[in-house]
Amino acid sequence: MKVPFLDLAHQYDPVEPQILEVWHQILKTRQFVAGPHVSGFERRFAEAHDVAEAIAVSSGTTALELIMRGLDLRPGDRVAVPANTFIATAEAVSNAGGVPYFIDCDPETSNIDPGGIPKAIRDGIVGIIGVHLYGRPFDFDAISSLVAGTGVWVVEDATQAHLATYKGLFVGGLGIAAGFSFYPGKNLGAPAEGGAVTTNSTSLAHRLRMLRDHGQVEKYRSEVVGTNARMSELVASALELKLPYLEDWNQARRQVAGWYRERLADHPKIGVPPRLSSVEPVHHLYVVEVPNRDAIKTALEAAGVGVGLHYPIPIHLQTAYVDLGYRAGDFPVSEAKAGSIISLPM
Length: 346
What we know:
Elements: H1 9-12, H2 16-29, H3 36-48, E1 53-57, H4 60-70, E2 78-82, H5 88-95, E3 99-103, H6 117-122, E4 125-131, H7 140-147, E5 153-157, E6 165-166, E7 169-170, E8 177-181, E9 195-199, H8 202-211, E10 216-218, E11 221-222, H9 233-242, H10 246-264, E12 279-280, E13 286-289, H11 293-302, H12 332-338, E14 341-344
Parallel strand pairs: 2-3, 2-4, 4-5, 5-8
Antiparallel strand pairs: 1-9, 6-7, 6-12, 8-9, 10-11, 13-14
Helix pairs in contact: 2-9, 3-9, 4-5, 4-8
């Protein structure tokens, strides 16, 4: 018996007939962009996360990039991001003209280490993107208390954390804005690329809606230089139909995470994710730390068990960022985790 790392069928089997019916209607009406399904999904996604605004866009990376532009990031501005995450977090800063300022991760949670923030503030960062890595919220209060009164803003990278909670509050409304991804493998996945920004700032939401649509406030009237980052009606309609199932799917992931913990927590050589009373993770990934990782990965795959590596190269050591001058040893916790983590089937 083979165990796949990820099986997307369970996300589509309950709603496939409804999706195909709605897609047929969209094909008949020919309204493929900026229609009722996009606005309907935005409204429901905002309600689900208890935020004022949701802006649907073309991908999670684009969501983060538009937030940077919406916050008027200037060329050369430094934005703190964790070294231990997917490169898209840093790309959003770079593509908006800023410079990623990397911070090591906390050895217990793998999320951004608040201990690195004071130096980052002294070095002149204008903002921080904290990542709710693997679907586990980072310590928002610890970071927000460190930047209080400095003018440094905090953005959430919630691309892996749909409906996760921090101290009883949904992610997406903790910072000034948050970026979500609906890449097919996410807890709420689209049948293509897709993303969204959530925020409680109506002024920022207005600016982001302009930026995603060529800077337009109405057709052919552009107030700022924007881009084409709109979500299609086909994608939005599928997400709209799947959203009511999301909490049940997250609960199923929590059950699987519980099974893993029950069987692995007492193993002397396996490090499992911590249980924190302050967060309710959604386990987009279940990542453990093991010795001889590559040998274990090979053995599991030979036994028919699909696994993943998230992420095997810290961002500061990626060739794409060699010009920033970081070297091996600069962020030892992130580097050690990159060599020992393995993602189990979820």
